Amino acid sequence: MHITPSITEAQLIFAKVRVAPLQERSIPQLELLAAVVGKRAVSYVRKALDLSIIRTTLWTDATTVLQWLSSPAVQPQFVQNRLTELRKAENITFRYTPTKDNPADILSRGQKASTLQNNSLWWLGPSWLTTERLWPVQPPNASKFSTVLSAKIVTLAFRHTKVQTHILSDSFETRYATWDKCIDKILRLWSPLRVYYTKKLKLTHATMRTRAELVLIRLIQSKYFSTELDHLRND
After folding, report:
1. Alpha carbon 112 to chain centroid distance?
2. Among 56, 110, 143, 151, which is most exposed with the fewest C-beta within 10 angstroms?
3. Is the pLDDT of residue 156 over 50?
4. 157-173 burial, b for 16+ CB within 10 Å, e for fewer?
């Protein structure tokens, strides 16, 4: 008996990008919008190919989006409406991919044609894509991080607890490319807690800004010097 081996291939078929809305949104909300774009692209490609598709996987490097999708809690209206659309998607599984293996970042950041021509990540996807046993799993303890980054970042930073590197994402650094912009963004994320900070703890704006800088420093250290931090923690 001759058995024909199964062949698994990966190939780019369709790509789509959208600019961020004029109304300012948080990074998790923008990541959620990207997931919605992906879901709609899947529907479009399914109809265009007119093939029998057994299953579909939609990948995201935003652990917050995956937390939202798995949580039964009711979210704010903007988030809840988009979660409802994603949950209604038929035969789509949502999975995690590390940021470094996410081809969508190439589309959002741009790349010279001469470089893109030989970029295997763009045309073929990450090297593990065709081998299911190598598919990445969601980072441990990701569920500890709330969609409102403010309170969680503060708690983790000031208790000297290890901060997960995905909070300071590449997209965050690209969008808020200067120190002051990053600090201002963190302060805006804290805005729901500002009354508590100013009235209960009697913190001034200057103190709040100093704490925001400390948070940012620790996030940067956690992202770019994780090996050194692990050595320090282990004496």
Report:
1. 24
2. 110
3. no
4. beeeeebbbbbbbbbbe
**Cβ-count burial of 131 within 10 angstroms (0-12 exposed, 13-18 middle, 19+ buried)?**
exposed
95, containing H or E segment = strand 92-96
Cα–Cα distances (Å) from 168 to 18, 79, 103, 219, in that order, read: 22, 21, 19, 6
The residue ranges of every structural domain in the chain are 27-134, 148-233
Q: Contact at 8 Å (CB) between 162 and 226?
A: no
**Percent of the chain topping pLDDT 90:** 23
Pairing of strands 56-60, 92-96: parallel
Q: Cα 38 to the chain's mean position, in Å? A: 13
The residue among 220 and 81 whose pLDDT is bigger is 81
Average pLDDT on 212-232 reads 82
Distances (CA, A) of 31 to 82, 91, 173: 11, 21, 14
pLDDT in tens, 99-135: 899 998 888 888 888 899 999 999 999 999 999 899 9
Would you state the structure tokens that stand for residue 175, as one six-digit string?
């969008």
